[in-house]
Every structure is written in C-alpha cells, then in structure tokens.
Request: fold
Amino acid sequence: MVSLSESSLIRAKVTHARRLPVKNRFSYGIDYLLLNEDLLLKSKTGLKLFSFNKPNLVSLYPSDHGVAGCEDFAGVRQLVQDGGIDDGDQLLLLTHPRYWGYTFNPVSFFLIYNKHEKLRAVVAEVHNTFGDRHAYLCTAKGGKDIGRQDTTVSVKQFHVSPFFDISGSYRFGFRIDESSVAIHIHYDDGQGGGLSTSISGSRVPLTDRALASALLRRPLGALRTMALIHWQAFHLWRKGVRYRPRPEPPSEAVTK
Reply:
C-alpha cells in the first residue's frame, strides 16, 4: 500500500461495454502510472527505468499532454482555477506512459487535491486515433469536493469513436485511495445507446522492479492498446454499425 499522493504503478483492467444498437463488450489489461507533480519536477526521479522529458525504457514528455502546455503543469492549475477551484494543493497525473518511446492515451486524468487530500477537480484529457485531443474539466456542483459516490457530468463535444455521433453526455466517477484506483465513465448518446468504460486496478509502489515487471508483462505497451482499439472497431463495422467520418475538433480546447 502507498500513500494517496505517492507515485505508483497501477496494474489495471480496462472494460468497455457498448449498448444499443449493437452490444459489444471487451476488456484488456494495461499498466498505468499515477505520478505526483513533485516526482515529475525533480531533475532526477531516483528510477533507472523511468525518465521525465528525456528518453528511457519508460518515459513521459510534457508534449504528450497538451493541456499542461509546460513542464510545471501550470496550464492545468490555471485551468482549474479558471473553473472556480482555487484551493488545489496537490496534482497527480494518471496516465499510460511511453514504453519503448511510443505512447497513445485514450484518456489521462489530472487529479487535483486540496491540502486535506480531498479531490477537488479532475481534468480528463481525451485523445482519439486521429491525433486530436480535448479535455473535460470535471467538478462537483457548487464547487464541493468530489466524493466516492459522486458523479460529474460533461456534455460531449469531441469526436472519439467513429461509431458514435457527437451528442449526449458523460458521467464520470472517481474512487481513488491508497490501495486502488477505479474510474468509471458512462456515455449516454441521448438516443438510448452509449458506452460504459471502467479503469480499475491495484496500486503498487513505483519502483524499477515494478516497471520491469510491467515491461515484461505487456512489452508492446500502447502499441497493443492501439491494435486492440482497431480490432474492436473492425468487429463493430462487421456488425453493421455506421461509421462516422472525423469532424473538425472543437475550437475550444477544454469543455468546462
């Protein structure tokens, strides 16, 4: 077990369950990192296999996350403040890093906590397979803390799957503690269909041994994730689900 704000590796399982007009369900294992801001700002992480902003077997670059915009993640903090949350004290990033120099993140999460370790806001940064990205600022009503039983709602503005229109809304739920991570995303397309996605897994200390185990367990990293996404897209196409061409991304980088 690790402390809430301690960097860790998540041995996660991702599950997708699609509803009407065609049901489709699949899941796969993936190794996420939950990284605190202090670790990322250090010139040396103390890890031999992980580096921030320079090449390594496992690495992370600021350019992988366009919302941040700079190495100190000032863009994320400013975004949260602009959304009315001014007591953010700790910043954690839940992401799938670069393995062997390659990354693709369907969704990453910037988690903002106050000094009492209460979750105040989340920036969900979404990437699609066309190279576009967009972010959703998730906050509780009235600026309250985001509790384990709470959900936040965001109107869909960004093209993710070519098998859904840009319509409807997302409901996000976050349950993060010292031993595990569980994030649920329920997409309602407004037409009786949609998709339920969950990311859940146990936390272990971020060590070279844990990173080596992840590299051996799933050596292809994000390449495997990309292949699985396209394989499932092929299944949906075979089942007759209509393909939607990529529209232009929204002019605003963030939906609040």
